[in-house]
Amino acid sequence: MTHRVKLVEVQVGVTSYVGVIRRIAERVKEIIKAHELDTLRAKHKVGEVIFRELRKVPWGDRLRILENVAREVGWSARELYRCAQFYELYPDLDKFLGRNPNVTWRKVVMEYLPQEKRGPKPWTCPACGSEYGGDVKPTTVKLCPFCWSEFLAWKQEHEGGVQE
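Predicted structure:
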């Protein structure tokens, strides 16, 4: 009989525990959504300020100014530029949000802003110090083709001498 009472108490406890979890989770989701919306509004407003102010500055000075502003506010110049792009492409934020109600800043950057063209990165051969553009791929051991062929020749000569 006592066992049955404990079982009922546990079930009631579990039911209320699940209810607490659901209520907390719902509230957390609401807060996150509100935060994401606040983030979008803030980034859009930052973009508006940057877009409007930088239009007044000579073209050659814009990047330098953007980098200095980024240093002052603790963001990257790239992030500030993305904010300006966001404002320039979607000046009416409410209209944009009406068409994209569940959008996040990450989704804006990945899907709604122009993607930066990224080619292969330049690299330096650790053996000879030669610098290569992205058109020359390093070998699997990160050597340039010249050092790699020299290494293979040395290896063949060395292994050949050891095996004799």
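Summary: The two ends are 88 Å apart (CA to CA).
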